[in-house]
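dumping this here so i dont lose it
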């Protein structure tokens, strides 16, 4: 992907000079699954050679992989909340992209539900300038579909597109009016970019604070039925098909939504979808203890929905993993469950949580996970990381044996509302290279599971 194009930032520091000796390279898209030397020179993958064969420059740092450490293409997250401008006490461009780098990401896309809302070209320009100075890894931006996320008047989509918006979303809010969305789809067809949709029928979700089911009834909490999401996915897929427009469904949380996406794809409509790690790994049972880190939108659903989402990710109905990284300050989350804001952080735990929770038990193959964690870039017209000669170094070095407890050494994110906090995880990112730069080096030494 080209950070000079529509992405901003990630060009701090010198290009990497690094020899990763005898590492197990896995890149499904490049068709590589074997032990190699990877030489990075001037930020570019200069050599992929038989183990021991690559000759590093004398000043290149050499890291010994022992045939055991993995090198994967770095991940891409098309859905994060960096909270800037306006809520920098939760996160900012520096802290959010540090968290992303620690999680193995070489690019993220920030949502526009900031204060003020990112709905004008001058604001987008200033945000891109700020990202160029402060972001550790390249950041792309989605602008709002409607002014102020009010769901009424469309933003100047063409102008925002020219200013570098990768697409449009009212994330945090649904576009309730089918007529407004239809108009947005017609503009999108003309000016390009992807329309990303947070699907929620507010007349169904109302004041719900968790998944509607046996547990919400037992706890006496207002529930959000899964049809609040799935009926909107079905409606908007059909609108996209009718207008031959390109839409992306954000954070799917239930089986019926995945079925609606599958049906839309079968009809040739130009739709794609993402799912968050928490919806793949947790159910509404996690809410029983009223931990506010388990409160997010859409809410954690039932086991049947969770299992269906894993299967939809596996078979490609759902195209990619997106964290919906949603930082909130401690004092905002330390309130009764009903009053707490929705959202969990996720950038620093996504890979390890999915590796531990899905790959190790055999529910998902590692190459499929890697593919789904990188594919978000392509959905927004960018190139995904690829481990190949002469490509910019966008890769991670991972120790799949290392066990760690989420949050034990704190977080790079400014917020700590992570639903996986305190969980024992396996698989740790040792190094991340993004835009040819070394953007993250794990400080905690490998203790357990060493060969
Ligand atoms: Zn959302
Ligand atoms: Zn979101």
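and the seq i came up w/
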């Amino acid at each position: 992907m080209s950070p000079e194009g529509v992405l901003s930032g990630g060009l701090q520091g010198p290009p990497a000079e690094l020899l990763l000796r005898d590492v197990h390279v896995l890149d499904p898209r490049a068709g590589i699954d074997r032990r190699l030397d990877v030489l990075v020179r001037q930020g570019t993958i200069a050599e992929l050679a038989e183990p021991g064969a690559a000759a590093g420059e004398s000043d290149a740092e050499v890291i010994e992989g022992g045939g055991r450490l993995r090198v994967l293409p770095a991940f891409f997250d098309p859905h994060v909340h960096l909270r800037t401008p306006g809520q920098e006490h939760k996160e900012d461009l520096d802290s959010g992209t540090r968290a992303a780098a620690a999680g193995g990401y070489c690019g993220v896309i920030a949502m526009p539900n900031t204060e003020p809302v990112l709905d004008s070209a001058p604001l987008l320009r200033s945000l891109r300038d700020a990202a160029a100075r402060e972001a550790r890894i390249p950041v792309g931006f989605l602008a709002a579909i409607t002014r102020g996320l009010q769901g009424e008047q469309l933003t100047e989509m063409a102008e925002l597109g020219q200013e570098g918006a990768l697409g449009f979303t009212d994330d945090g809010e649904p576009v309730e009016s089918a007529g407004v969305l239809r108009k947005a789809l017609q503009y999108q067809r003309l000016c390009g970019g992807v329309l990303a949709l947070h699907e929620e029928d507010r007349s169904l979700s109302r004041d719900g604070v968790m998944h509607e089911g046996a547990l919400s009834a037992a706890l006496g909490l207002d529930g959000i039925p899964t049809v609040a999401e799935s009926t909107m996915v079905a409606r908007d897929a059909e609108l996209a098909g009718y207008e031959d427009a390109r839409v992306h469904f954000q954070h799917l949380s239930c089986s019926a939504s995945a079925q609606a996406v599958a049906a839309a794809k079968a009809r040739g409509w130009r739709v794609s979808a993402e799912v968050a790690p928490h919806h793949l790994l947790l159910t509404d049972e996690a809410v029983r203890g009223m931990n506010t880190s388990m409160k997010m939108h859409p809410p954690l659903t039932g086991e049947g929905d969770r299992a269906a989402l894993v299967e939809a990710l596996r078979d490609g109905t759902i195209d990619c993993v997106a964290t919906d990284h949603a930082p909130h300050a401690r004092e905002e989350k330390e309130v009764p469950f009903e009053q707490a804001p929705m959202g969990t952080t996720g950038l620093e735990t996504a890979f390890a949580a999915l590796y531990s929770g899905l790959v190790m038990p055999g529910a998902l193959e590692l190459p499929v996970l890697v593919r789904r964690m990188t594919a978000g870039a392509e959905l927004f017209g960018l190139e995904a990381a690829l481990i190949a000669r002469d490509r910019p170094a966008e890769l991670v070095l991972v120790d799949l044996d290392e066990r760690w407890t989420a949050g034990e050494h704190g977080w790079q994110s400014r917020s700590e509302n992570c639903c996986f906090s305190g969980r024992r995880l396996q698989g740790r990112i040792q190094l991340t290279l993004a835009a040819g730069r070394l953007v993250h080096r794990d400080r905690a030494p490998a203790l357990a599971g060493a060969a």
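The pocket of zinc ion (ligand 1) is lined by residues 171-172, 198, 250-251, 297 (CB under 6 Å).
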